[in-house]
């Protein structure tokens, strides 16, 4: 008889796979196992065997006992995210060096399998994952400036159990605290507002936001003000602020390459969550564009532009004689970007699906506001990637350089293969660990048009 959910299996664990798990096999069946490491021998509890275990292509399991540990195994930094726990800390049992090797292996494997690029043929001779500044000193903890919680049936704030809608309450007295990935400022906000001691209306969605402080401020400069939203309402001093003009935005600053840019964005909108990510990514994008020469007077596209993280620095790089075309699907994010860019007439903000907006701009070629060519393109698509239509539209504009910011290795590899078909080679690649203790990573890929 095939096993059932909750049954224990003894498994010898194989290589890592995209998604935060490793691959094991039992009687020829693939089992994706979380909370383990390659080479380990574990007892694993089956968590998903499909509708019919006998015919399912694969099963899922959690390692609940380690019989032979890997040298990369360390004490779990977030037990609440362990087997049967909340999502979001699936690599908390792995050393930081081990996490970097894990993520490098996944990115290299996806580029090999989907983009047909052998590891030795990659820029730099392979994938090398970089830690964000300060993460090694903090042990990979306290980096998230934004945390989302939900109140369970008992009103206690918590997070969803992995791959379920069940809410598990977070214990403020737990070793390491209830949210060890949150910055100290987020934890202080939670404590000040009684997030974990108060009983909320079941189902209440809580968003805790504490923008990272600038590194170049004077000692007496005020830190950015944190904000708690409960179902979209500002919560301050232990009560909801019901005023129509209650603050729902935060100020984010990005300092790199000797310049500071300031953004005012919706607290519950999209913004990079790692305290160092905005500056690190802006610096990486500007560095990737530098080999193409000065951007002064250039036409640059910023696709999937969000609240303008890259648009604002690009507007400085092109200067008033250049043209920056920003495209973003979220009207609220475009509204946020307009706050920062309203005084820059050489910047155009377009709200709408990227493929639709590009099609309209290209159709208007020759007319005012039309688009026939771009000198450079920056794109930061969602986890599904840009896709065939957008890649084709970008290639038709014939930019010399495309800088692709990716949050998913498989999507990046698929799109790199599509760009290769249009005459673009992967000439530089940076892999950045902006999500310690999780399987996620960010990559900045530079694609250069062949002569």
Automatic annotation (TrEMBL):
Name the residues annotated as catalytic in the UniProt entry.
Answer: 407
Q: Which InterPro entries match?
A: MeTrfase_TrmA_CS (IPR030391), NA-bd_OB-fold (IPR012340), SAM-dependent_MTases_sf (IPR029063), TRAM_dom (IPR002792), U5_MeTrfase_fam (IPR010280)
CDD domains for this protein:
AdoMet_MTases
Tell me where on the tree of life, at the top rank, the source sits.
Bacteria
* Residue intervals of the TRAM domain: 2-60
Q: Which GO terms describe its molecular function?
A: protein-L-isoaspartate (D-aspartate) O-methyltransferase activity; rRNA (uridine-C5-)-methyltransferase activity
What's its EC? 2.1.1.77
Task: Name the SUPFAM superfamilies on file.
Answer: Nucleic acid-binding proteins (SSF50249), S-adenosyl-L-methionine-dependent methyltransferases (SSF53335)
Q: Which PANTHER family does this UniProt record tie to the protein? A: RNA M5U METHYLTRANSFERASE, TRNA (URACIL(54)-C(5))-METHYLTRANSFERASE
Listed A to Z, the keywords are: Methyltransferase, S-adenosyl-L-methionine, Transferase
Would you tell me the protein name for this molecule? Answer: Protein-L-isoaspartate(D-aspartate) O-methyltransferase
Report the Pfam families cross-referenced here: TRAM, tRNA_U5-meth_tr
Cite the Gene3D superfamilies for this sequence: 2.40.50.1070, Nucleic acid-binding proteins, Vaccinia Virus protein VP39
S-adenosyl-L-methionine: present as a keyword of the record? yes
User: Which family would the database say this protein is a member of?
Assistant: Belongs to the class I-like SAM-binding methyltransferase superfamily. RNA M5U methyltransferase family.
What organism does this protein naturally occur in? Luteimicrobium xylanilyticum
Q: State where S-adenosyl-L-methionine binds.
A: 272, 304, 328, 380
Task: Look up the record and give one Gene Ontology term from the biological process aspect.
Answer: rRNA base methylation
Q: Does the keyword Oxidoreductase apply?
A: no
């Amino acid at each position: 008889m095939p096993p059932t959910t909750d049954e224990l299996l003894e498994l010898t664990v194989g290589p890592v796979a995209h998604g935060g798990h490793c691959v094991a096999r039992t009687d020829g069946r693939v089992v994706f196992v979380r909370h383990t490491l390659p080479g380990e021998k574990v007892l694993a509890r089956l968590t998903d065997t499909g509708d019919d275990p006998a015919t399912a292509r694969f099963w899922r399991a959690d390692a609940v006992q380690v019989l032979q540990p890997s040298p990369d195994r360390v004490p779990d930094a977030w037990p609440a995210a362990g087997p049967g726990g909340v999502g979001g800390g699936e690599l908390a049992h792995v050393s930081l060096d081990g996490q970097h090797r894990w993520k490098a292996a996944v990115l290299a494997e996806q580029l090999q399998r989907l983009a047909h690029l052998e590891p030795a043929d990659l820029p730099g001779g392979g994938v090398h994952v970089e830690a964000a500044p300060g993460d090694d000193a903090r042990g990979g903890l306290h980096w998230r400036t934004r945390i989302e919680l939900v109140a369970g049936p008992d009103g206690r704030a918590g997070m969803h159990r992995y791959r379920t809608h069940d809410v598990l309450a977070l214990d403020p007295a737990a070793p390491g605290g209830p949210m060890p990935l949150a910055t100290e400022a987020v934890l202080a906000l939670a404590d000040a507002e009684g997030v974990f001691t108060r009983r909320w209306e079941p189902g209440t969605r809580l968003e805790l936001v504490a923008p990272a402080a600038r590194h170049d401020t004077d000692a007496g400069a005020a830190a950015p003000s944190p904000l708690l939203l409960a179902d979209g309402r500002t919560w301050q001093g232990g009560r909801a602020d019901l005023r129509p003009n209650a603050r729902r935005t935060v100020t984010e600053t990005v300092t790199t390459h000797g310049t500071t840019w300031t953004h005012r964005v919706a607290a519950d909108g999209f913004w990079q969550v790692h305290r160092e990510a905005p500056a690190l990514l802006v610096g990486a994008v500007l560095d990737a564009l530098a080999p193409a020469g000065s951007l002064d007077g250039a036409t640059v596209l910023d696709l999937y532009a969000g609240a303008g993280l890259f648009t604002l620095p690009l507007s400085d790089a092109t200067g008033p004689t250049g043209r920056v075309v920003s495209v973003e699907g979220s009207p609220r994010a475009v509204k946020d970007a307009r706050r920062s860019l309203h005084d820059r007439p050489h910047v155009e903000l377009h709200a709408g699906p990227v493929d639709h907006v590009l099609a309209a701009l290209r159709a208007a070629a020759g007319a005012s506001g039309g688009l026939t060519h771009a000198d450079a393109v920056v794109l930061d698509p969602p986890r599904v990637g840009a896709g065939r239509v957008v890649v084709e539209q970008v290639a038709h504009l014939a930019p010399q350089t495309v800088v692709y910011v990716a949050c998913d290795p498989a999507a990046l590899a698929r799109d790199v293969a599509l760009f290769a078909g249009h005459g673009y080679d992967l000439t530089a690649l940076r892999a950045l660990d902006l999500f310690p203790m999780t399987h996620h990573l960010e990559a900045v890929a530079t694609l250069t048009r062949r002569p």
